[in-house]
Amino acid sequence: MNKLVYSIWILLTIAITILTIFCIFNPAWYIHNNHIHSFGLTVFCEGLSTEDQQIQSRCQTYGGTFGLANIPSGAWQASFLLISTGAFSFGVTVILGILIHCIRERYVYSISSLVLYLQTSAVLLMISALVTFPVGLSSHYFRYYCGDSASVFYSANCSIGWSYMLAIMSVSLSIFCPVLWCFKEMKWNEFQFKEYV
User: Fold this and answer.
1) What's the DSSP call for residue 71?
2) Which residues form a coiled coil (predicted)?
3) Residues near 121 by beta carbon (within 8 Å), at least 6 away in sequence
4) What is the mean pLDDT of the chain?
5) CA dihedral over 94, 100, 102, 107, signed as positive or negative
6) Which of 57, 104, 107, 196 gives a 20 to 30 Å CA spacing to 76?
């Protein structure tokens, strides 16, 4: 086993899992242009003006309690299910990737194939989640805060937030995980070019 490739795979997979979970519970997927309101998959922040015209932000889960039914858009619910399933699958592959050193040799190929298929499907699930989320911009809830002209893939008075961009970068990096997993068994001498006389 190529320990360098395996170490990079482990670190990248753990980082992607943590970043994706962080993004799921962060409210900055879309932000109002005047930075009063922000919306995430499970949490939103609402700006409230105080007596001295200061704006204080109050963040909470949709509907006051965490639940799939409380997320205001069907597209956002689907996006939440897709990305959380992908993050869970990445977490499972980390555990399987570590346990592969503790199992009998005859099961290694089966577990290795399972890790490859799980990661590939997790990448596809998370890409689907990121494409599905902007479909929910046409919901009545989002249009109330960001303007009536908001529609599918058009956010009107809101713009993409840093948390959504972080999720996009995380998923973009996740594409390399199944590739790295395939190269973990390659030896260094297979990378070198041989000269033929």
Assistant:
1) S
2) none
3) 89
4) 87
5) positive
6) 57
